[in-house]
């Protein structure tokens, strides 16, 4: 990219290209999110640490949420999924949430980073704080505000789905592990819908 600022991590000789600059930003973002948490990290601070202009961070990732999703390899971009879910009629949200969870967790490549984050959050307070801040700000808070649903109800729905996903994909408890997607939707969606109504 012509005129792109030189990343601090660049070696001598040739100027870093977009890929190297992008990776340098992500490396700094990972460190900052781990050190200061989601709420304590800003795009400007990430840019300063990476030695680039904040506009370049915005160009690559859009928002702090976008940086987090990329840096932590979060398998779902809330800025894409939430508007899709919230555009549905309210009476279909329970089913849509169950299907979304099954789609994400059913993909081994997308499930792996979720499991790594959950394990880290269960054993490390800094990791737990970072995930709590991100999930509260980027997911639950935005969903509750947009859908006019109490936070406790949204947390209950998400907690229910995380429990189902762990039984199905981590512990592989039968018959949950081999149940069809439609069976699980029929079983779980009405409970989620009750939380959301």
In words, what does this structure look like?
The chain is mainly alpha-helical. The protein folds into two domains: 54 residues, Orthogonal Bundle (Arc Repressor Mutant, subunit A); 119 residues, Orthogonal Bundle (Tetracycline Repressor, domain 2), CATH 1.10.357.10. Helix content is 72%, strand content 0%. It contains ten helices and no strands. Helix 1 packs across helix 4. The N terminus is likely disordered.
Concise overview:
72% of the residues lie in helices and 0% in strands. The protein is an all-alpha fold.
Task: Write the SSE topology.
Elements: H1 18-36, H2 43-50, H3 54-61, H4 64-71, H5 78-86, H6 93-106, H7 108-123, H8 125-147, H9 151-170, H10 181-196
Features:
Arc Repressor Mutant, subunit A, 197 residues, 0% strand, disordered N terminus, Tetracycline Repressor, domain 2, mainly alpha, 10 helices, single chain, globular
Q: Any idea how many domains?
A: 2
CATH fold label of the largest domain:
Tetracycline Repressor, domain 2
Shape: globular
In angstroms, what separates the terminal alpha carbons? 49 Å
State the name of the first-level CATH class of the largest domain: Mainly Alpha
Percentage of β-strand residues: under 5%
- Which structural class best describes the helix and strand composition? mainly alpha
- State the share of residues found in helices, binned by percent: over 70%
Poorly predicted regions: 1-15
The average pLDDT value, as a whole number, equals 84
């Amino acid at each position: 990219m012509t005129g792109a600022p030189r990343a601090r991590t660049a070696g001598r000789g040739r100027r870093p290209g977009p890929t190297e600059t992008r990776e340098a930003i992500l490396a700094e973002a990972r460190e900052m999110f781990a050190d200061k948490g989601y709420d304590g990290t800003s795009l400007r601070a990430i840019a300063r640490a990476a030695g680039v202009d904040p506009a370049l961070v915005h160009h690559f990732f859009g928002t702090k949420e976008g940086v987090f999703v990329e840096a932590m390899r979060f398998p779902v971009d809330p800025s894409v999924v939430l508007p899709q879910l919230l555009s549905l009629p309210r009476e279909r949200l329970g089913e849509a949430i169950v299907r979304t969870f099954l789609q994400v967790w059913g993909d081994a490549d997308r499930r792996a980073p979720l499991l790594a984050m959950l394990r880290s959050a269960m054993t490390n307070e800094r990791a737990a704080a970072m995930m709590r801040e991100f999930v509260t700000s980027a997911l639950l808070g935005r969903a509750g505000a947009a859908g006019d649903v109490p936070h406790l109800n949204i947390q209950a729905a998400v907690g229910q789905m995380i429990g189902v996903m762990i039984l199905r994909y981590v512990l592989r408890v039968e018959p949950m592990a081999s149940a069809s997607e439609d069976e699980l939707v029929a079983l779980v969606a009405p409970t989620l819908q009750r939380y959301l109504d």
